């Protein structure tokens, strides 16, 4: 399957890219970057570094939006560190970003392929995707699906009491994406907060006998420093990799077709994902919203794929 990863690396974003590269079922056509965990220049540099680490400097990296559509930018350096990659010092990238804006790359790639052929894997704020949909409305019928890390339902927010980070940063973009009619599969905090990066799981990853395992373990160890303390769990959540893991093994997850809308008006609940889990509203379903996950199955797959490098 052909995918584009739209991302704001971020340690867990980098692991997502690595999992895609380790998987012959997936053809990663390109990586598009967006401002999120850290500013755009840094997310772009981190995407380039990740591809260098994997020995894949042939994959294009297109820089995209450097700020949300309407609201001021918000970063998550309290979780990911100043560089977004704290925990491991990787060498500077061996190349600059590929010329051309991320939005143009997304439009061109989707339009040049048969309808439905391209999966967009979105693991950062949705600014690039909303801009692409606005600029080329035919994308609504052409994008095969959007597989998204974002939203929250049961425990609600990780950046405000009401909102998950990716949606909160650009709620207007997220609302445009949910209103687009493109099939969407959502991996919310409900799923990601079940996947604790426990000491035992990180040791399994660190022990992978190649250059990738120890780097990923060090990244996740840094990410968990803030989150494990905050949530009082043995390990932090594992967010973005669920998107690629699901593409490889959908049977590891269970969810429901529901309507999801995003709050864009209230200062108190800005970016809240309003999920009609019980079907009490009148708006039709627009997404598959995951809630259950086979935790050990996910970690087994992560270890198995990273061992392939
Ligand atoms: C999301 O925010 C970022 O910090 C992570 O990379 C993930 O995409 C979790 O809310
Ligand atoms: Ca991310």
UniProtKB/TrEMBL annotation:
InterPro entries referenced in this protein's UniProt entry, alphabetically: Inosine/uridine_hydrolase_dom, IUNH, Ribo_hydro-like
GO molecular function: purine nucleosidase activity
GO CC list: cytosol
SUPFAM superfamilies per the UniProt record, alphabetical: Nucleoside hydrolase
A Pfam family this chain is assigned to: IU_nuc_hydro
One GO term (biological process): purine nucleoside catabolic process
Keywords: Glycosidase, Hydrolase
Domain Inosine/uridine-preferring nucleoside hydrolase: 3-299
Annotated protein name in UniProt: Inosine-uridine preferring nucleoside hydrolase
Organism name: Komagataeibacter xylinus NBRC 13693
């Amino acid at each position: 399957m052909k995918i584009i990863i739209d991302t704001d690396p971020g340690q867990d974003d980098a692991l997502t890219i690595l999992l895609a590269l380790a998987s012959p079922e997936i053809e990663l056509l390109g990586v598009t970057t967006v401002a999120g965990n850290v500013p755009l220049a840094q997310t772009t540099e981190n995407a380039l570094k990740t591809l260098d680490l994997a020995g894949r400097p042939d994959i294009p990296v297109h820089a995209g939006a450097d700020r949300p559509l309407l609201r001021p930018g918000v970063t998550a350096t309290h979780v990911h560190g100043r560089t977004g990659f704290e925990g491991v010092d990787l060498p500077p990238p061996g190349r600059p970003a590929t010329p051309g804006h991320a939005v143009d790359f997304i439009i061109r790639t989707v339009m040049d392929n048969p309808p439905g052929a391209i999966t967009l894997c979105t693991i950062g704020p949705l600014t690039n995707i909303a801009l692409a949909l606005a600029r080329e409305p035919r994308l609504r019928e052409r994008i095969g699906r959007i597989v998204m890390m974002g939203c929250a339902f049961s425990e609600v927010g990780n950046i405000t009491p009401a909102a998950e980070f990716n949606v909160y940063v650009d709620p207007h973009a997220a609302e445009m994406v949910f209103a687009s009619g493109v099939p969407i599969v959502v991996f919310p905090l409900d799923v990601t907060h079940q996947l604790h990066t426990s000491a035992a799981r990180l040791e399994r990853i660190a022990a992978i006998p190649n250059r990738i395992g120890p780097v990923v373990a060090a990244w996740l160890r840094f990410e968990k420093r803030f989150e494990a303390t905050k949530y009082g769990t043995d390990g932090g959540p594992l967010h973005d990799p669920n998107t690629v893991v699901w593409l490889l093994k959908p049977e590891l997850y269970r969810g429901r077709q529901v309507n999801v809308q995003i709050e864009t008006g209230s200062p108190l609940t800005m970016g809240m994902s309003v999920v009609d889990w019980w079907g009490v509203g009148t708006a039709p379903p627009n997404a598959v919203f995951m809630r259950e996950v086979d935790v050990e199955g996910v970690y087994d797959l992560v270890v198995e794929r990273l061992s392939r490098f």
